[in-house]
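Action item from last meeting closed. Structure (295 res):
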């Protein structure tokens, strides 16, 4: 029995791929972050950022939170802010899926939609300007060390233990980069030979949740020395792998997870041997109003 829904954050399942790879000397595992109560990997940093800010006295129940988001972090923050009775205003591009917007509002958050053409960068600029105008506190997932430390304290140790210390490669999409930074830091401390593989979109590819940031928007928490290799994926292969995850492995996820899986499968076919873990960062029901699963 759990005292709070927050007790269910983390300890997500690790499941072996059965059909996606053909290399008998390599094992591929998916970490199912959609099993978090808020439906994504972002529950981990959202909880840690709010909890630590409260502990340090940076925020109180009178504080108005504001944050720019492309979706999953906003949902997690809305859920957790509601539990702590905090007001939160979330800023996101107007082309975000309706499921994401409605979920945030269901948790009690105020949602402001910015022009689609500006993307998440425009949402970040809007939130920064609001900070200058009013009495807001921004958690700033892009520059908050409590983001990546959540993965150092939870995601990395879980993967290390669940693979019986045999992991050789870790694959993660890169957005705010908190997941890959924290997990890399932990895994490298345990075994420096573990390879950390980041996934970015190819030029002009639009894959929600995966970013190739302009220099001026590069997350402050990102340290390129913690990533051994970057693989790029294009939109068609990310879409197709997302559908294959559902059809062949029974893993219903979003396109950023498909992009990471596509890179992981490509990696597995080139390795002589290894144990590869890829992050499945959310659930596919967040994308049903899009054309992702159209055949």
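Sequence:
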């Amino acid at each position: 029995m759990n005292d709070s829904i927050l007790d269910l954050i983390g300890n997500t399942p690790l499941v072996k791929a059965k059909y996606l790879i053909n290399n008998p000397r390599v094992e591929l595992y998916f970490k199912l972050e959609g099993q978090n109560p808020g439906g994504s990997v972002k529950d981990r940093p959202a909880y840690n950022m709010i909890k630590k800010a409260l502990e340090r006295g940076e925020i109180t129940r009178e504080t108005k939170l504001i944050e720019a988001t492309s979706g999953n972090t906003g949902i997690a923050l809305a859920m957790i802010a509601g539990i702590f009775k905090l007001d939160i205003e979330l800023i996101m591009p107007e082309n975000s899926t309706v499921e994401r917007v409605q979920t945030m509002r269901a948790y009690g958050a105020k949602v402001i939609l910015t022009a689609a053409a500006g993307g998440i960068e425009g949402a970040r600029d809007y939130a920064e300007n609001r900070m200058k105008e009013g009495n807001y506190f921004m958690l700033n997932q892009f520059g908050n060390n409590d983001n990546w430390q959540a993965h150092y304290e939870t995601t990395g140790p879980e993967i290390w233990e669940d693979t019986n210390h045999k992991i050789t490669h870790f694959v993660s999409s890169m957005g705010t980069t908190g997941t890959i930074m924290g997990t890399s830091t932990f895994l490298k401390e345990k075994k420096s030979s573990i390879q950390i593989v980041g996934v970015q979109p190819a030029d002009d590819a639009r894959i929600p949740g995966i970013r190739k940031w302009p220099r001026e928007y590069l997350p402050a928490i990102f340290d390129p020395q913690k990533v051994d290799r970057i693989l790029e994926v294009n939109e068609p292969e990310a879409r197709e792998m997302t559908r294959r995850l559902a059809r062949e492995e029974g893993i219903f996820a979003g396109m950023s997870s498909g992009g990471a899986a596509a890179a992981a499968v490509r990696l597995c076919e080139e390795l002589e041997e290894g144990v590869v873990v890829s992050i499945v960062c959310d659930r596919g029901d967040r994308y049903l109003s899009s054309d992702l699963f159209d055949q």
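Note appended to the action item: The mean pLDDT is 95.
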